[in-house]
């Protein structure tokens, strides 16, 4: 028999019987028989996983504000500089002055259009944030089933976007009318870089790094360095060694202080070449390096936008599978009704702990020591359990009397009953 771990000081009947609980793994749309208040309580706990629901559009909004601010500063600075040049010039003719002022007016009009367009974009993103806040506030016991259905679709769209199924994700969002509740625009930004990396091009990814340079530096990311290394490797593969050396001097040398070992390893490929059979260097020329860069870009992208590194769908599935995982699930005669009989679910559950322990450990409430055959548990008349060692010491100090630290019950040591674990 197996005994589930029990809280210290529980009743004797709990110490001698086995309680087996069956838990079913479910997605947020599942309908249970719990009361509405219980459902809302569970929903409150699960919402802690959805910080990205509000953070992603907010981070996108902040990024737009910063970009618009940089554009305005650059244009205004350029205009002021041009005005100063005209003002300081003593020999400029009237016609040249008119031309200069006309050019400045055109630039200012262009700046105005850019600012108006930026303002519209910012307003749309603010509305997006507001829509999500309203969605969270709209949940109550009456519409919980409908609200969970929308949430389930959001989780599916998020998963599709992460797996690069952009068109399918967009169609699901449009048919469900949840465009404001999903991050289609944000992932569309990542699509360019992901597609380019799959085609073995680093340009868009490097442009993304330049655009987010300060934030990547703050998080101590080395993704740009990895892109530069791959570009160097491609030059060596093409046997363009002189250009590879010049590239290394310009783009790789600045990383030498922090990534010297990796830099030395890659630079050695100039001597070993792309057809080397040396495993240490051969792996650098394998196509899987591009797959690694795709995965690395996604991880950096998720962190930058405040997303969970794992899809929410996987997180919810693992939460359910963690309650179902037992050694029996991985045996050949595992029942087909068990989700873990399927290979994909087994893969998801692989890093998870088993839901039940084979050997329970009972710890004494008083001494905090393990209760086993050498120090067996003893049961008081009120049903609370403590270790023999603790109760003996208490009896010796109180003329054979035992006082329960939980309830204050006083009894004789002879009234105790030894508990057996099987």
UniProtKB/TrEMBL annotation:
Q: Where is the composition biased (Low complexity)?
A: 10-20
Report the GO terms under cellular component: cytoplasm; GID complex; nucleus
* InterPro entries linked: CRA_dom (IPR013144), CTLH/CRA (IPR024964), CTLH_C (IPR006595), Fyv10_fam (IPR045098), LisH (IPR006594), ZF_RING_GID (IPR044063), Znf_RING/FYVE/PHD (IPR013083)
GO terms, biological process? proteasome-mediated ubiquitin-dependent protein catabolic process
Where do the zinc-finger regions (RING-Gid-type) map?
334-407
Q: Name one GO molecular function term.
A: ubiquitin protein ligase activity
Q: Where is this region: Disordered?
A: 1-20
**Pfam families in the record:** CTLH (PF10607)
The record places domain CTLH at 186-243
Which keywords does this Swiss-Prot/TrEMBL entry list?
Answer: Cytoplasm, Metal-binding, Zinc, Zinc-finger
| Compartments it resides in | Cytoplasm
Indicate the segments forming the RING-Gid-type domain, all copies: 334-407
Query: What name does the UniProt record give this protein?
Result: CTLH domain-containing protein
